[in-house]
Amino acid sequence: MGRIKRLQRAAAPVPPMPAPAICPLCEREIPDGQCDAHHFVPRSHGGRDTWVLHRVCHRQIHALFTEQELASHYHTVERLRAHPAMARFLAWVRRRPPGFIERVRRSERTRTRRTDHD
Ligand SMILES: [Zn+2]
Ligand SMILES: [Zn+2]
Predict the structure, then answer these.
(1) What is the pLDDT of residue 97?
(2) What is the pLDDT of residues 47-58, one digit of tens each?
(3) Which ligand lies nearest the alpha carbon of 86?
(4) 118 or 70: which carries more pLDDT confidence?
(5) Of 11, 54, 58, 107, which residue is the least packed, with the fewest Cβ within 10 Å?
(6) Could you write out the three-class secondary structure of 25-70?
(7) Ligand 1 geometric centre to CA of 108 (Å)
(8) What residues pack around ion ligand 1 (CB closer than 5 A)?
């Protein structure tokens, strides 16, 4: 049970509900049913630590980066955000309602087109 000290808010009456998880990528609350767990380093590369984020944000990560790229470089929030395409996605998704879900089309790039002849 790690104590999370980062989310310090102004002292206000605490409602009798668990605080909603905050997506570290877009920094919005994550509604029920939209939580995904992402491995900082893909499991296939020995990663164990995960973070919780929006399904749509999670899909975007895997749409933009291969597991190799995630393992070798994009295993921190800072680095993911620094990528121009991710920055654009985040700027866009922040204007969507928190429960927004959409298919991320670019997933094709990393999922299927891998059978090119070298
Ligand atoms: Zn998010
Ligand atoms: Zn993931």
Answers:
(1) 76
(2) 888 999 999 999
(3) 1
(4) 70
(5) 11
(6) CCCCECCCCCEEEEECCCHHHCCCCEEEEEHHHHHHHHHHCCHHHH
(7) 21
(8) 23, 25-26, 54, 57
